[in-house]
Amino acid sequence: MTGSPIALPELYQSGYRYALSLCVQPADAEDLLQRACEKLWKCYGGIPNKAALFRSIRNLRCDQARRENIIRFEPLDLEPAGRGPSEKDEALEAALATLKPDQREALYLMVVEGYTAKEVSKLMKRPKNSILSLVHRAKQQLRERLGQTEGAQHVQS
Amino acid sequence: MSNLEERLQGYYGDQQPSSAFQENLALRIQKRRLRRRQSSLAVAALLILTAFLLRPGLQRWDLEQRVAKELASQFRKEDPRPFQALGQWSELSQLLPALQFAPAEFPRHSFAGWQPVGARYCSVQGQQAAQIQLRNVDGEEALMYVTQRQGGLQRLEAGQTQREGIRITRQPKQEQLFFLVCPSPES
């Protein structure tokens, strides 16, 4: 999780995807990203690096969850995001929505962003083993869920 | 890399914020940059103005300190040159004929209790001055400097400075500056 400079659009894309891993809904992710960017602009006059953006997004999400006093679990019958994912993606999206937010977050950071367990544990402020366990369980659940969905689709067809 | 990981990367790779959101965010950032630049300029202008306003005060303070340092060091130094006996203040011009100015009346109200007893040539910040030896009724000695209020010394106003246990009192009078240098009572 280095502070190497990256282009702004790329940073926003990463921030958006990370926000999406926290909130599932695109509108919520956009809102979270916008607030995080504004907060960083206010404090530092810009976005120092990806790690700072992720931290800011995470803190805002935690504050929001604290205010709501509960971390919302998105319903299973969500409308697809409508951003051109394939049918397979819809199944994955629905499966991802069943995961706990921290599982989804850890999974995103390790699998998509390529962070190490140590880096993720630092960001999420949890022990390394706990992160590995979260990711392992998340993958297991996703596989089960995707297996069920694809199995059902196979029977229907 | 497992099939699931590839699917996850593909799924998140396809996700991106809407173009309206990206445009809105870029616009907000542009506005914020502009506001930041404006406030930076305002702060810079304020700093320049403050420095401009404070400069004369700082320069005067610096001069007061330099003069005080010079006079305090002269007071401590035992100059072997003898003082010429001075009975009356009015005799000063005759006693020091090479003075480029006629010393003003002794400011008795400011330096009450002191009596001139001797005089000799001296300088303050490179300007010719008369150094007068004073004595009070208790037999304590002090030094008085009289010089013209010109050049940098024009900036000096009436006041007092303490330096290394020496008290320097400044008193301007008729385009001349009087300095009374004596041990500080607190020292």
Helices and strands of chain B, in N-to-C order? Answer: HHEHEEEEEE
Query: What is the makeup of the main sheet of chain A?
Result: none
Radius of gyration of chain A: 16 Å
* Assigned CATH class of the largest domain in chain A: Mainly Alpha
Q: Give the strand order, joined by hyphens, for the main sheet of chain B.
A: 1-2-3-4-7-6-5
In total, the number of domains of chain B comes to: 1
Helix proportion range of chain B = 25-40%
- Mean pLDDT of chain A equals 81
| SSE string of chain A, helices as H and strands as E | HHHHHHH
Kindly report the name of the CATH homologous superfamily of the largest domain in chain A: Winged helix-like DNA-binding domain superfamily/Winged helix DNA-binding domain
Task: Quote the beta fraction of chain A.
Answer: under 5%
Q: What sort of overall outline of chain B do the alpha carbons produce when their principal axes are compared? A: rod-shaped
Number of beta-strand segments of chain A: 0
Shape field of chain A: globular
CATH topology of the largest domain in chain A: Arc Repressor Mutant, subunit A
How much β-strand is present in the residues of chain B? 25-35%
Number of helical stretches of at least 4 residues of chain B:
3
Structural class of chain B: alpha+beta
Largest sheet of chain B: 7 strands, antiparallel
**E-strand count of chain B:** 7
Radius of gyration of chain B: 33 Å
